[in-house]
Amino acid sequence: MIPVLSVASECAPLIKTGGLADVVGALPHALAAEGIETRVMLPGYPSVMTACAPGDPVMEEAGLFGGAACLRPATYRGLSLYILDAPHLFAREGSIYLDAEGEDWPDNPERFAALSWMGARLAAEGGEDGWVPRVLHCHDWQAGFAPLYLREMGAAERCASVMTVHNIAFHGFAPAERRHELRLPEEGWRPEGYEYWGRISALKAGLTSADRITTVSPTYAAELTTQEFGMGLEGVISERSSDLAGILNGIDLDAWNPATDPAILTYKTHRGKARNRAALRAELGLYDSGGPLAVVVSRLTHQKGLDLLLEALPEFLEAGGQLGMLGSGDRRMEVAWQEIAAEHPNVAVRIGYDEALAHRLIAGGDAILVPSRFEPCGLTQLYGLRYGTVPVVAQTGGLADTVISANDAALRAGVATGLTFSPVTAPALGRALSRVTALFADHEVWGRIQRNAMRHPVGWDVSAAAYAALYHDLLRDK
């Protein structure tokens, strides 16, 4: 067994704000079948400390960015964990990243530098429980300093490091004058290191220090080398292209299983969707229009492209389509969608997040819409495939890698699993929605697309094998 320490700011089902948590929580189970023993290091948020009841410390640090801290082992639903118990950094109310006013916690650089530091220390020294990782796997900017710290501790020759980019839009910036407080080496303060236009970038620290870089789909890996998608880091990514791999995310097939899902009226074939659609319409207050019921489960942000849907939606509604939405985010977008729902009896909007409702939307919808301007991998389209809810997605990132569009050739070959559209504009989305309406009217064709979708592999098996191969390859050099 290869011991791997996975360092991340969130992990489902313990603590989740987005898809990062799903990946960090699901991948260890799949890796176990590949001979990889993964332990996940997480911050000791109040909810995590309560849920896990962690054990005695295996590593302590008297002064970790303003206070005493320790690592405590824990297990939760089959996951092996190390919890960073640092009350001065993590024992606070509100979001894990934002204060009550919705602003970043001002000490976020220190909070996640602490997570990175303790991850690197455990990788370098091992804990008092005798467990010593051979690979340090770091996720997004919150763990970005860890590969750099590992090198500074002199352990990079023994322990390999991997930096996974789930979303390059978030750098983890800090002012230049805090680099000494953050224990960053002065020689790294240069354009080839962690410096980004006069600021510290935690993500760039990881990208320039880790042995390998991965991201969550092959198309997104290619996109990151371009100015359009690289968010200012395309040069760094391009220089390290030989160390870059795009490995698709999977989903937890037990948590997302229409045959056993406790949140829905269970079904094993696409024919079971009718009961769930009727139940969902009743829950949302929608009548049976006879047309397709499209659903959205998403953050309401510019990235997710739901402003494009606002523009494209009227024609879809006029053709008999309906929309059920669950999401939260940008306040102006929340208000805009609430206003649309108030004006249109064929639109139902729920602001917030409700996991059970998300399952019911995906089980009851005919199509799931993902019009993202960019999407590293995307998980909701994978949930849609699993439940026979036809994905309608922008031709970008992992969306392009996971959906076979229902063009004439794919329909003739019998392989279509959804619809894609390009460019990512409201008119192109509108044309895709018109295509949904037309295809839905042909029950035989629509049913074939649904069956193909439900057969499409969306689990972690292939991806876990790719990560295991990456770890083995890295350790051959150590």
Automatic annotation (TrEMBL):
Gene Ontology biological-process annotations: glycogen biosynthetic process
Entry superkingdom: Bacteria
Entry-linked Gene3D superfamilies: Glycogen Phosphorylase B (3.40.50.2000)
Keyword tags: Glycogen biosynthesis, Glycosyltransferase, Transferase
InterPro entries: GS/SS, Starch_synth_cat_dom
Class in the EC hierarchy, top level: transferase
Keyword Repressor: no
Residues the record lists as binding ADP-alpha-D-glucose: 16
Gene Ontology cellular-component terms listed: cytosol
Pfam families: Glyco_trans_1_4, Glyco_transf_5
GO molecular function, one term: alpha-1,4-glucan glucosyltransferase (ADP-glucose donor) activity
Recorded catalytic activity of this chain's protein: [(1->4)-alpha-D-glucosyl](n) + ADP-alpha-D-glucose = [(1->4)-alpha-D-glucosyl](n+1) + ADP + H(+)
Pathways involved: Glycan biosynthesis; glycogen biosynthesis
Keyword Glycosyltransferase in record: yes
EC number assigned by the record: 2.4.1.21
Boundaries of every Starch synthase catalytic domain copy: 4-238
Function (record text): Synthesizes alpha-1,4-glucan chains using ADP-glucose.
Similarity comment text for this entry: Belongs to the glycosyltransferase 1 family. Bacterial/plant glycogen synthase subfamily.
Protein's UniProt name: Glycogen synthase
Record organism: Tranquillimonas rosea
Taxonomic classification: Bacteria, Pseudomonadati, Pseudomonadota, Alphaproteobacteria, Rhodobacterales
